[in-house]
Design brief:
Layout: E1 8-14, H1 18-29, E2 34-37, E3 51-52, H2 57-63, H3 66-70, E4 74-76, E5 79-83, E6 89-93, E7 102-104, H4 106-119, E8 123-125, E9 130-136, E10 142-147, E11 150-159, H5 166-171, E12 177-178, E13 181-189, E14 197-203, E15 206-212, E16 217-225, H6 229-240, E17 249-251, E18 255-256, E19 262-263, E20 267-269, H7 284-301, H8 307-315, H9 319-330, H10 332-342, H11 347-357, E21 362-365
Parallel strand pairs: 1-2, 1-11, 2-8, 5-14, 11-20
Antiparallel strand pairs: 3-7, 4-7, 5-6, 6-21, 9-10, 10-11, 12-18, 13-16, 13-17, 14-15, 15-16, 19-20
């Protein structure tokens, strides 16, 4: 890493995921001197359901990468199956639209977004861990970011480094977490009959999500209370014929108290650093992209005060899905009862998938 301490950037973005890369790309494109610091080297795998809902396409289009994302190996999702603890299934057809729900591997999507930020003029520092963050107060507030390779100075700081944000921890702002659940994720050969489908299966321990991500590969996610996670993994190994040596990636916490998207006068939070959403909803990547764009808009216009209001509007009317998803995981028996009710009232699950995908699906019971 070259010596950057003599330079003053307009914006320093920590984290190269969808939120950070999107913010950096829009900032650099608008002429702001922008640097993005990422602790790993891309491409890299990431714990995620790999689903990209239709609301994300306008952001990708404005970013100039929509066609490139469509060119990645992916699946076009047409059906969501909900399976209860009693093995009964309700299937909801997703709408046929010009901007469909797709599933695409995060290592591929994130690589496209990071390279777009670079092409827009952002300076990218990969393999660089942040070890310290401090602000010089006053009318010309500046941030000093200490890394393993040197010091970076910037007028504004964007934390896009996820639910376990290093920036928030170093500043003493990391919010309360709930440690009752954890998630595991892996990729497996796509089982027969799963082409173009997502399947959410409730188990006594929690739930299992499986999505076709293209190339005959399935993304398998498990979510459970910590005490039941090993049992759920054992079930999944038997259900899908996996070896005991199968590599799983883990993530925790799945719930965390939200923190305001703006801290102080010049620190903005984007993506999961600002608010964590349940993986069940499939909306995480959309919120990351959208919040990254909103933060960039505030930085470019020098109206950082507008970001909290616009960030809140992004989630308005949608967070009830979060509550439903969490309840379904914590109380899979109740979720199974809901699926039985859906035999007579399929519009209940239709409403859920409509909110997540932005379309109007139809459901049937099987």
């Amino acid at each position: 890493m070259p010596d950057l301490s003599s330079r003053l950037f307009d914006v320093a973005v920590i984290g190269g995921g969808p939120a950070g890369s999107t913010c950096a790309a829009f900032c650099a494109q608008a002429g702001l001197a922008t640097i993005l610091v990422e602790r790993t080297h891309f491409p890299r795998d990431k714990v995620c359901g790999d689903c990209l809902n239709p609301a994300a396409w306008p952001v990708l289009d404005r970013l100039g990468v929509a066609d490139q994302v469509r060119g990645l190996v992916h699946s076009r999702l047409g059906v969501v199956d909900f399976v209860g603890c009693d093995d009964r299934m309700v299937s909801c057809a997703l709408p046929e639209t010009m901007f469909p729900e797709i599933a695409v591997r995060r290592r591929d999507l994130d690589q496209v977004l990071l390279r777009r930020a670079e092409a827009c003029g952002a300076e990218i520092e990969e393999g660089t861990a942040v070890t310290g963050v401090s602000a010089r107060k006053g009318s010309d507030e500046q941030w000093k970011i200490q890394t393993a390779h040197g010091t970076i100075r910037a007028r504004s700081l964007v934390a896009g480094d996820g639910r376990n944000s290093t920036v928030l921890r170093l500043l003493g702002h990391f919010p309360r977490t709930e440690r009752d659940r954890a998630g595991l994720q892996t990729h497996i050969p796509l089982p027969d009959g799963m082409t173009g489908r997502v399947r959410m299966r409730f188990r006594p321990e929690g739930y299992c999500g499986l999505a076709d991500i293209g190339g005959d590969v399935g993304n398998l996610c498990l979510v459970a209370r910590s005490a039941g996670l090993d049992r759920l993994r054992t079930w999944a190994q038997q259900e899908f014929g996996l070896e005991a040596a199968q590599t799983w990636r883990a993530i925790t916490p799945l719930s965390r108290a939200p923190i305001g998207p703006r801290v102080g006068s010049s620190l903005l939070l984007v993506g999961d650093a600002a608010r964590v959403v349940e993986p069940f909803t499939g909306e995480g990547i959309y919120y990351a992209l959208a919040s990254g764009e909103l933060a960039a808009r505030a930085l470019v216009s020098r109206r950082l005060d507008r970001y909290p209001r616009e960030h809140a509007a992004l989630y308005k009317g949608r967070l009830w899905i979060n509550r439903v998803a969490k309840a379904a995981c914590l109380y899979p028996g109740a979720a199974t009862v809901l699926l039985r009710i859906a035999q007579r009232r399929p519009e209940l699950l239709g409403l859920l998938t409509k909110k997540v995908t932005g379309g109007v699906p139809g459901c049937h019971y099987g």
